[in-house]
Design goal:
- The chain is mostly helical and about 210 residues long.
- The chain has one domain.
- α1 packs antiparallel against α3, α1 runs antiparallel to α5 and α4 packs antiparallel against α5.
- The chain is globular and about 45 Å long.
- InterPro entries: Pr6Pr-like.
- Keywords: Membrane, Transmembrane, Transmembrane helix.
- This is Pr6Pr family membrane protein.
- It comes from Pedobacter vanadiisoli.
């Protein structure tokens, strides 16, 4: 197990916060879409932010009940935990650098969900990684494997967008930007994932 002792109280509280933020965002989205559950679910699960926060919530929930001696669980291993850290930190970075202010959430519940998903939850998982994950055995070659999830997401969004003519993020909106620019933007985002992965591995190996 690549975790320090006494992690359980932290992850248990964190799980509650992340699940609450997801439930709150789903409730807000459901109201915006006139209580249409199928449409809301499809739209909800099209966002990288939501999918990654779900992974974070599952991770924290699983760790809340994991045995101290358990080592075979994916969520007790430093490479998986570091990859998730990269994913959720990218969520926070891209939103706050590129997307904040493009759409203003209306109402307190929407604003609260927005801040939790894009600011609070990334910070919580980053703190978990810093203080509770044993990172010294990380390897730089692992960074390539970590690109699988964002790459699959990009492919999914492009195919989905082609079929329904709708994209969840403006920087990959083929309708507005065209394929060359959208693919270039997606490539830049993938590069950010890779460089951030290398940075986290470098920091991990120094601790």
């Amino acid at each position: 197990m690549d975790l320090n002792k006494n992690f359980r109280p932290f992850v248990s509280c964190a799980a509650v916060v992340v699940w609450f933020s997801l439930a709150l965002q789903f409730s807000v989205s459901l109201q915006l879409l006139n209580n249409d559950y199928p449409t809301t679910i499809k739209a909800f699960l099209s966002y990288f932010t939501v999918l990654t926060n779900i992974i974070v919530a599952i991770c924290f929930s699983r760790l809340s009940f994991v045995k101290q001696v358990e080592s075979g669980n994916l969520f007790t291993q430093a490479p998986a935990l570091t990859a998730i850290t990269v994913y959720i930190v990218v969520v926070g970075l891209i939103y706050n650098i590129m997307l904040r202010g493009l759409v203003l959430p209306a109402g307190l519940p929407a604003r609260l969900a927005d801040e939790l998903l894009h600011v609070v939850n990334p910070l919580i998982f980053l703190l978990f990684w810093v203080f509770f994950v044993k990172k010294s055995t990380l390897q730089y070659k692992q960074s390539i494997n970590w690109l699988a999830y964002p790459f699959i997401y990009v492919v999914f969004i492009v195919v989905r967008g082609y079929l329904i003519n709708k994209y969840p993020y403006p920087f990959i909106d083929v309708v507005q930007l065209g394929y060359p620019t959208a693919i270039l933007n997606a490539s830049v985002v993938m590069l950010i994932f890779w460089l951030l992965s290398l940075l986290f591995i470098f920091i991990g190996k120094k601790t």
